[in-house]
Write a structure and sequence with these properties.
The complex is a heterodimer of chains A (185) and B (463). Chain A is an alpha+beta fold and 185 residues long. Chain A has helices at residues 21-38, 42-47, 83-95, and strands at 15-16, 49-60, 72-82, 107-119, 125-137, 145-158, 161-171. Chain A has a seven-stranded mixed beta sheet with strand order 1-4-5-6-7-2-3. Chain B is α+β, with helices and mostly antiparallel strands and 463 residues long. Chain B folds into two domains: 57-173, Rieske [2Fe-2S] iron-sulphur domain (Rieske Iron-sulfur Protein, 3-layer Sandwich); 181-460, Naphthalene 1,2-dioxygenase Alpha Subunit, Chain A, domain 1, CATH 3.90.380.10. In chain B, strands 13, 14, 15, 16, 17, 18, 19, 20 and 22 form a nine-stranded antiparallel beta sheet that branches. The longest helix of chain B has 14 residues, at 374-387. The chains are: A alpha+beta (185), B alpha+beta (463). The interface between A and B is large, with 39 and 42 residues.
Chain lengths: 185, 463
């Protein structure tokens, strides 16, 4: 098993086919989420988060092929968040007058692709894997920062709307090529 | 009070290709430095030789390589090194350059190997860097012109201090004790205060900022002042220092010509409500109420075994909380009040590794006391990750600031603007101050950062 394919739910759980009604709902939720993030509609993004959310971005290390399990470091993270701390971050960005890391704001584009959905054993929760590509530009930079990652999510159906209950963001860079993560992924 | 400092007898100011000398870039009497230093390629090359090849450089913590034959690859200035553990306490720092053809010997970032074998032609080395041999022994492919003792990996001097691994390639240079100098008394209060010391909670966060290494490093020399404006959101949020950022500017800043600096902030001032009546409490009562950041109540008796009474009293009343070590280390041991009323520590070290004149690598280790319960370690890691480093809500504003300074340093007009360190503390040394080094009481001023520049100047102009 390579590091990037470590499933959040056991692979024996049934795949939900691409193009099915549930798959389309989930895809639409992730597209909408990307739009909220790119358009700085962070309060709406906050509504998408479940109150028991765990949101983490583990560190990556370059390890030999036979030690790939150790390539993802779960003891240290670039993001180590829960619902409350993410709400704190949203408040800093939207309610204070001096969140300089995003003022002027980054221009971002979140690209979401390769969405694969599995059942989880809980009827209201889905294990969703997706590839992410973030482009980010600030000030007069003449280049794009490009950050790629895979996301292992749990999405939960709450009274007909989907909420993010768990997210693990696994970056492809061991040394992140960005000055900070004042943006969400 | 402007002090004209005598030049060392070994003073020799190098001249850059355009005719500018180091003496032209820094005005010691006016306490100004030309902004040009934040982007200049020739100056950068000189710094790699004059500073990073001569001083002690932080590479990590021994708890990152706990087992025999563990190794990790780290950046040491512009060179890359392998940090290995041999038997017991033996820690080696080896240049990650094969003496055969210059290939990297370790291509992975960490692991466990008894022998390090270069993948190019197979030359092999022990964990202490000694040359073991080359493939096809009967052909003697390493020749016979040099003895095996000359074919090992280049070794650095190593010092493990409070578990922190420092290395220095200058065999005849400063000892580690000379490097810490009179500031050791204060660093011992952070790194050498408990029986089993600190533990790195994992490998460090690493990320790249498009700024000169000095933009970050001079700030680490205890720039308290920027907090008021750059981190103004802390006050708008209300949780920090009970919403009173300016009050947290008060304290005693300790510093010396070593370039090291720490801000010792009075606890009673920082937690006015919580610490009501603090001044009239006994040492034990104070420790019980507000243990030093990261220390549990169970560990409190240990402090007495490692610190002298003056150090302990200072740690309780006015602990060093932020500061740095020359050339490129930031230290944060900050009280972090939590919504549930408990007080944790933000306990972290950064190194700002040069990656070119306009690029640095931010390396962020998070620490906890080894003897702290796992639950406390987990909380410290989470809270520190939230405030410092890659996504840190405080430091994301710093890392977005430094690139602008480096950009400005490239303009034909901008490069001649001077950085000014003219906020001078002219108060007498605080009465009965127990510790060594220079000590400045009151509002945070520029004296610590100016000492950082004087150390830079001393090293850049040393013969």
């Amino acid at each position: 098993m390579t590091a990037n394919t470590k499933p959040i739910a056991a692979n024996k759980e049934k795949r939900i086919p691409v193009g099915s009604e549930t798959y389309n709902r989930i895809t639409e939720a992730l597209y909408e989420e990307a739009m909220w993030l790119d358009e700085m509609r962070l309060e709406e993004w906050g509504d998408f988060l479940a109150p028991d959310l765990i949101y983490r971005a583990p560190l990556r290390l370059s390890r030999q092929r036979d030690e790939q399990a150790a390539s993802i470091v779960h003891t240290m993270n670039h993001y180590d968040e829960d619902y409350g701390t993410l709400m704190g971050r949203i408040a800093r960005l939207t309610q204070t007058k001096s969140a300089w890391a995003e003022d002027p704001p980054s221009r971002t584009r979140h690209f979401v692709s390769n969405i694969l959905v599995r059942e989880t054993g809980k009827t209201d929760e889905y294990a969703v894997k997706s590839n992410g590509l973030l482009t980010r530009n600030r000030f007069e930079e003449d280049h794009m920062q490009v950050i790629s990652y895979v996301r292992n999510d749990i999405l939960r159906d709450v009274n007909g709307s989907l909420k993010l209950a768990k997210r693990e963001i696994v970056f492809d860079m061991a040394v992140l090529g960005t000055q900070n993560l004042s943006i969400f992924l | 009070m402007l002090k004209t400092l005598p030049k060392s007898p070994k003073h020799k100011s190098p001249v850059l290709p355009d005719g500018t000398s180091i003496d032209d870039l820094i005005n010691v009497d006016m306490r100004e430095v030309q902004l040009r230093v934040m982007a200049d390629k020739d100056l950068y090359d000189l710094e790699m030789e004059k500073i990073f090849s001569k001083t002690w450089v932080l590479l990590g913590h021994e708890s990152e390589i706990p087992n025999e034959f563990d190794y990790m690859v780290r950046e040491m200035g512009a060179d890359q090194v392998i940090v290995t553990r041999g038997k017991g306490d033996e820690v080696n720092v080896l240049l990650n350059v094969c003496p055969h053809r210059g290939m990297r010997v370790c291509t992975a970032e960490a692991g466990n190997k008894r022998t390090h074998k270069c993948i190019y032609h197979g030359w092999a080395f022990k964990t202490n860097g000694d040359f073991l041999g080359s493939p096809v022994a009967k052909e003697q492919m390493h020749g016979d012109m040099r003895p095996k003792s000359e074919l090992g990996l280049t070794k650095a001097n190593v010092k493990v201090y409070g578990g922190l691994i420092f290395a220095n390639f200058d065999a005849d240079g400063q000892t580690f004790e000379e490097y810490l100098g009179d500031m050791k008394w204060y660093y011992d209060m952070l790194f050498c205060r408990t029986d089993n010391g600190l533990e790195a909670l994992g490998p460090p966060q690493r990320f790249i900022i498009n700024a000169n290494w000095k933009a970050a490093s001079e700030q680490a020399a205890a720039d308290g002042y920027h907090t008021i404006t750059l981190h103004q959101w802390l006050g708008e949020f209300g949780g920090f220092n009970e919403g009173d950022i300016e009050a947290s500017m008060m304290g005693v800043e300790v510093t010396s010509r070593t370039g090291h600096a720490l801000r010792c902030q009075p606890v009673a001032n920082k937690f006015k409500k919580l610490a009501a009546g603090f001044d009239s409490m006994t040492l034990e009562e104070k420790l019980e109420l507000l243990p030093p950041p990261g220390v549990t109540k169970e560990m409190l008796p240990q402090l007495k075994n490692h610190l002298d009474p003056e150090q302990l009293a200072l740690l309780v009343d006015q602990p060093p909380q932020v500061g740095g070590m020359f050339p490129n280390i930031l230290i944060a041991f900050i009280y972090a009040p939590q919504p549930d009323g408990t007080i944790l520590g933000l306990t972290s070290l950064h190194s700002y590794t040069p990656r070119g004149p306009d690029k640095l690598e931010f390396t962020n280790w998070i620490f906890a006391e080894k003897d702290a319960p796992q639950e406390m370690k987990d909380r410290i890691r989470k809270v520190t990750t939230g405030m410092l480093g890659t996504s840190g809500m405080i430091e994301q504003d710093d890392s977005d600031t430094w690139p602008h300074m480096t950009r400005n340093a490239k303009g034909p007009m901008g490069k001649n603007v001077t950085l000014k360190y003219q906020a001078i503390n002219s108060l007498p040394r605080p009465k009965d101050w127990p510790g060594p080094a220079e000590a400045y009481d009151g509002f945070t001023k520029d004296d610590t950062q100016w000492n950082w520049w004087l150390r830079w100047y001393d090293m850049m102009t040393a013969e």
